[in-house]
Amino acid sequence: MSAGTGVAERADVGDVPDTLYYLYGVTHAGTKLPDVDGVGAMRPRLVESDGLALLAGDVPPGITVATRENLLAHGHLLDAVAQRSTVLPMRFGMLVEDLDAVSADMLTARRDEYLAQLDELDGAVQFSLRATYDEDVVLAEILAEDDEIRQLNEATRGAPEEAMRAERVRLGELVVTAFGAKRPADAEAVLDRARSVARAVVARASGAPAAVVDAALLVDRERADELEEQLERLARELAPRIRLRLVGPQAPYDFVAD
Prior knowledge:
Blueprint: E1 8-9, E2 21-28, E3 45-49, E4 52-58, H1 68-82, E5 87-96, H2 99-109, H3 111-121, E6 124-133, H4 135-145, H5 147-156, H6 165-195, E7 200-203, E8 211-220, H7 224-238, E9 242-250
Antiparallel strand pairs: 1-5, 2-4, 2-5, 3-4, 6-8, 6-9, 7-8
């Protein structure tokens, strides 16, 4: 989500002045906040305007905002809010100098947009799903299926590192291609099961050779258990070729318009 006028996008900041405030996202006015600290171990609060609220917090004097600890605190707070309420998360590191003025400006200028997004995401949370190959298992499949790969593998096995360089390069290219040929059908099998429960699915790009699926799932809170059950069943069906990892519930990071 991009912020409104007056917001300083400063995820790379070091020491900050005493007068800055941290922004987490936008939610409905009256949202009950969880008992969770945010960036700088400070408790967040709502700055409300006409039915909307900016989720914000003080920045302690002299702290370094751009740390791993604060990045985790940012996500943990938003995920905790999302378990009970709808929230439109902002990127890590959004700082402002005049919290009241920025809140009034943002929530007035983009009121209809924020309300529409909150309505669209109402009742839902995000889960992150990753499916990866067990490379040894799938490589054994490939060796059994492809004569050229099997022969090159046997020819180069145990040879000195500098020997048969061209053959090793060719073997690597063929193996990568073979993994790539298997991926679409395997990915579709995983995504089909996810789509049977999720409202929406966003596939993310991944360059890792063993990656099958990296996706964000938008799921009704009341169907979260159903999603987990479906994917646990699928994980048993796909083992040992493919491993599944599900993380969530989370705030709907991948489903908020920029």
